[in-house]
Write a structure and sequence with these properties.
The chain is of the alpha/beta class and 282 residues long. It has one domain: Alpha-Beta Complex (2-enoyl-CoA Hydratase, Chain A, domain 1), CATH 3.90.226. The chain has helices spanning 57-64, 88-99, 133-149, 167-186, 201-204, 227-234, 245-250, 260-276, and strands at residues 12-17, 24-29, 71-72, 105-112, 115-122, 153-159, 191-199, 213-216, 256-257, 278-279. Strands 3-4-5-6-7-8-9 form a seven-stranded mixed beta sheet, sandwiched between helices. Strands 2-1-10 form a three-stranded antiparallel beta sheet. Helix 3 runs parallel beside helix 4 (167-186). The longest helix is centred in the middle third of the chain and has 20 residues, at 167-186. It starts with 11 loop residues before the first strand and ends with a strand.
Length: 282
């Protein structure tokens, strides 16, 4: 069973089926083996021991997708200043120069250890990965392409939330992306959400937390409002580590924390289970 991957067993044995020959194959997901003394489901004992620097979207794709298999989507989409927000286009130009990208997300398709997927990677180097109309449109189109091709979807989030310079238009992207993921789910297709530092605001409140499986990198900041705003609102001191990946996993919001060095392997094995079909021997 898929749920065994995130339980307390030393490893999970998953029954996989191939329709071509009707033979049942059993695979031990040994990469999920727990290390004594570590929190179940985590790759690290103490989040303070690991520091994951923020990663550019291109670098993330290069480290995740098989070489030569990535096909980028919607490279022609460009941001416009629909609300005539003062200084917005100047900020866009600066962000393009600083990041080398046209927008805060890269979408496309590729293979992870031979397994097909549609992948979206947000880039915090572009206006802190904020979600405007182009970001929402690119993610929605990628999900629709996944439905068309019957591919699973992986989204790496890294965002400060909805982009204030686009006002209500940016907030509309929350509903649009969530509706697209609803259609993906109805088609029985897999969505893996990978939360990286930081994942906050309207992105957390929409597609980031809608994954069938939700993974996070160690120590990632994940939340809606910032901890300082929350403390000022409730007039209380927050718990240590509040809004960090480890705290959220303890509270049941995250399925597993995966070190960056293991991410590609973990994703490929989940994709393989989805591709072949999981079940039990009952």
């Amino acid at each position: 069973m898929l749920k065994d991957l995130f339980g307390k067993k030393k490893y999970a044995t998953v029954m996989l089926y191939k329709d071509v020959d009707n033979k049942i194959r059993t695979v031990a997901i040994d990469s999920f083996e727990k290390t004594p003394g570590k929190t179940p489901g985590n790759d690290i004992k103490n989040p303070a021991e690991i520091s994951h620097p923020r990663m550019a979207a291109r670098d993330r794709i290069d480290s995740t997708i098989d070489k030569g298999t990535f096909i980028e989507y919607d490279t022609d989409l460009k941001t416009i200043d629909a609300l005539n927000f003062p200084g917005y286009m100047e900020k866009i130009e600066t962000a393009m120069q600083n990041s080398g990208e046209k927008e805060a997300v890269i979408t496309g398709e590729g293979k992870i250890m031979g397994e097909n997927c549609v992948i979206c990677v947000m880039d915090s180097n572009f206006m802190m990965g904020s979600m405007g109309s182009v970001v929402g449109e690119k993610i929605t189109r990628a999900i629709e392409k996944a439905i068309e091709k019957r591919f699973p979807v992986i989204i790496f989030t890294a965002s400060g939330g909805a982009r204030m310079q686009e006002g209500i238009l940016s907030l509309m992207q929350m509903a649009k992306t969530s509706a697209a993921l609803g259609r993906l789910s109805k088609e029985g297709l897999l969505y893996i959400s990978v939360l990286t530092d930081p994942t906050t605001g309207g992105v957390t409140a929409s597609f980031a937390m809608l994954g069938d499986i939700i993974i996070a990198e160690p120590g990632a900041l994940i939340g809606f409002a910032g901890p300082r705003v929350i403390e000022q609102t409730i007039k209380q001191k927050l718990s240590e580590g509040f809004q960090r990946a480890e705290f959220l996993q303890e509270k049941g919001f995250i399925d597993r924390i995966v070190h960056r060095k293991n991410m590609r392997t973990v994703l490929s094995k989940i994709l393989k289970i989805h591709t072949l079909g999981g079940g039990n021997d009952a």
